[in-house]
């Protein structure tokens, strides 16, 4: 235990990691100095804005519409994604810690990238940020954290930062195309976040394929307590998913309806996940991998349609099928992807994000195409699909088509972007672990001396051994 | 460890669990399709409703009054109840996982049952749901999760689903009688949730009495980390209890006051719990069981009176006595219940829910009977006790009587309902574990191979043994 | 393992702990009965207040502006601080449990102390409380929990309660001087909470210096899972810090801006913490101590300036330097403090609270002094710095001076108050542990029998041993 680890100098990140952190953070400060300002609702001039716009109460500030949802989303990003990935027996530090690092960098870069594409003020050349910008930054980061799930345990923190830099950049572009150019609706990001993030991660993982990963097989399972830690992540994601899907939807009924739909869809997913998981074992035992992951698929798949009038039973149906498909994905598709397509997907993001994301895109397209004035009301239809300005003459059928087009864009950006970024990450300069040292915190973390942990329990055994030594001596 | 487990085919739930999950979920979808619709605040027609009702701002949507509380309640249901029950050394998966399953089913069934009883629109035959419906569904589920605490580790997931099906049904009926017919107030559910849920679980546990449960004694304790996990549950319940008791109280002062009272009552409970726990040990050491559970009794006991003008010191007094009674319950009453009444109460829900619930009902009745216009104001009294419509002439004294009657109803429903449901659960078809396999996740879960966990620490010992082998060989 | 522990009767707290809990809680009830009442927004007369003040909607109740932030702060106090301190291998019960106890007492005492100093109604002699009072009580408690971090594992729960009694008292006085007399702004408490709490704890720890603490060295480290538990605390503190710094700032832009600044500052801190942590190890490995603690320094340092127009890049810069300074504090300053100044600081609160708090005070003073009408607007400047009443003629430069003066007050109160309280805690009557029994839950908690935990894994070894016995017998 005191011997030097068998991996070589190549996992030494003492130069690269600090340099990347410092340089990029300084770049953020400079770019923020040049571009980012408070928007009118967070600026001290708000008192004048209020008077000017005849706003009677401070409670009309968008802050009060969105802050509770924002905080829930924030918990999903840092505790949800972070702890969901702690299931491996010896990669909890990397799961929570690197998730923390890349999300903290990513949200800054996202504010800039999304700002440039979505809200650069042409007159001042500034980006004005408020609570909705923070939510969108967290959303953008989510795409990269999903991708992290595919390569968990197999990459260095420097690689993760590079992956996040490009991931956020690609995200901002595809989001601009889907939401602004195609004018598709995707409030909870079935397409923009989950489909993109899923395929981005899978594509990177394909390029970084490790034929000898079995050499780390001993580290690839969970232990009892690591599975329990992972359930913290699962539950915070599950509970707060209604906030995720409603955080940036329309004030009033838009947020209200997105919450109800997501709440119901997720409940339905839990039952079918349990059913399939139980069916998959000889004696009907449940598998923690399914409970930790597939129970969330309904939330992913309602990311587009949650704000629509999909109706409560519609949400249940979406959740129903997603639980089935996602769990079967873990049982049948993941092994196939690994053996045939050489995609090693540590957390099974294909089953939790990519597939349900695509389903969500399709559900969104169909629901949009089937929308009618009788269900939404005349103004309700305009509000829900934002049929204003350049898009005021768009029909729901056309909208359905653009929704479907949006989904294709997110897949293409994920696959192609991931392939390119994967090639960059293949360069032998990033300090990634050897095949036999994957999934091991030992590589990048100072670990506590574990001998101490069993101090309380080992003595009886040692005592036993001592006893035997005496017996032996008697011999 | 590689041998087949000693229990027989009877814990095989590969048929029953998937069938129940699928059939019930499909039934939910059909019933939701027939009955459940968005209410006017979550429907896309809200823009028209707003215009019609002269509502000037989206922030007037009930969503913004209740969503933060809803999310806190949601966390209590899934993380709070789930993790509180992880204290057993090898039942964390069952605690968190089955809690997850039955809550997800229960909330769907609750929306229907509560809808039929409380909000079925006579004209359309539909149930219109909004954020308050979701809170009430979570509340209803809480009753069943409380009952789960009594039978934790001794039942199969199929039994839990059956228990939830009937529990939610009984809950909706007793709630209808207490809140609608008796017109009692019970915003945080001291009676409706905790008293009912507590006696329902205890009654079931009585019917399912296992005389040979001592055969599982080795599994009945906690370990250091499982106790730490349980504190996650305790704290999230404790912190968010103010949201629980205020989630469906009146807008404005009603919610505000319920929060203050619950916050104070719970703080007081912690001190007396610690005091009694320390007194109960020879050297004044504290017992984690008490800290995990009895600290919450004050929140239970303020479930009825939190919205009343019980006054801050009144809330402190309630918490003071509940901490004492609940902790003494763990020390004296639980052993008595097990030995004399043959009630095996795994989590001690009698001390945490049943007794404090009854106290809460009594406190509520007294506080209501003692209400006066000088304290509440004329309109305040009407608002707080909802003395409108059929009940506009009710006096506070009468109200106190109806509150007390409500408590009796909840006890009767719990005890009788539990006895009947317990008899159903006694049928030998549900796959429950043998007496020697209780409290063991091994029965219903694929467990990780634990040998690996100690990889880091075992080598020195094995090395020692190897060393001894060599010594032996030398001999 | 069955032998009596080696420490003597002096850690027996069976008399002192229950007596202190009971007497103090009864005192709270009496004082609350005499002094504490609901304020007008939580009183049942609110319906009349509304009519009288022409308030059109219940949503104008301060409850709806502050409740979501309050709940986040509440989570920080109980889960955040509690779990952050679970990093020690065998002090998780003490960390979470004693944190729970002293916070529950402290918030009651804080409502009284802060009430007497800040909001005693001169006419009625009453203190009227509402949601903002609860937030302030939680804030006040935070100061004492910070101090707990310095003496974690070395004091008895009775000492902690005494420390909290005096800590809350001192807090209320320094807060009154800083916020009311000096009229300094300190919404997130860089000075009032963190600087005071930090120096209060360090000063107490200095007085309680244990020259033979090395005798407990075996207990002073972490284990893998205790470090993972601590990350729960870290992340909930980190995620909810925007709520902490904005909870009592001005409605509207004040809360909105404080959230944005804190969110950004904390993100920046994470990157520089990682950079310095990696630099500090030969192979660039990260140290969990840094990730758990220093990542929070940016939130501390923005406690004063978060509500000002520090601008987004300004917040990033503050976070940038705090991550560096705090991490270097763990590497260089903590060992120096221990060796040279004899300050044993278990959690490193000097690096996480004291230093960043002072930085926050300085940043606040500079930002205030540099404020201008062009940046804030005329009315914005008045609102932000509350230049009304007696202070309507104060200039920003003067304000900067008073901010700096406030910081000095908080340091003096911390150091001098801590020295006095430390002397009281040095009396040999409080049941604190011997030098060789520090950092061990065994002293104050009934611990589960750990032998059981390894039941699953030990058998193979015992089997091995049995095998050897047979071999031996063959010999």
Short overview:
Chains A, B, C: It holds the Pfam family Ammonium_transp. The structure is a homotrimer of 475-residue chains. By secondary structure, chain A is mainly α.
Q: Overview of this structure, please?
A:
The structure is a homotrimer of 475-residue chains. Chain A has a single domain (71-119, 132-426), classed as Orthogonal Bundle (Ammonium transporter fold). Chain A is globular. Chain A has a two-stranded parallel ribbon. In chain A, helix 7 (190-207) packs antiparallel against helix 13 (349-369) and helix 13 packs antiparallel against helix 16 (396-425). Residues 1-9 and 452-475 of chain A have low confidence and may be disordered. Chain A has helices spanning 16-35, 46-53, 62-84, 92-118, 131-151, 157-181, 190-207, 224-246, 253-279, 288-293, 297-301, 312-339, 349-369, 373-376, 378-385, 396-425, 458-474; strands at 36-38, 127-129. Chain A is mainly alpha-helical and 475 residues long. Chains in contact: A-B, A-C, B-C. Chains B and C meet through helix 3, helix 8, helix 9, helix 12 and helix 15 of B and helix 1, strand 1, helix 2, helix 3 and helix 4 of C. Chains A, B, C: It is a multi-pass membrane protein. Chains A, B, C: It is found in: Cell membrane. Chains A, B, C: The chain crosses the membrane at residues 15-36, 70-88, 95-115, 127-148, 160-179, 191-209, 221-240, 260-279, 291-310, 316-337, 349-371, 404-425. Chains A, B, C: One of its GO terms (cellular component) is plasma membrane.
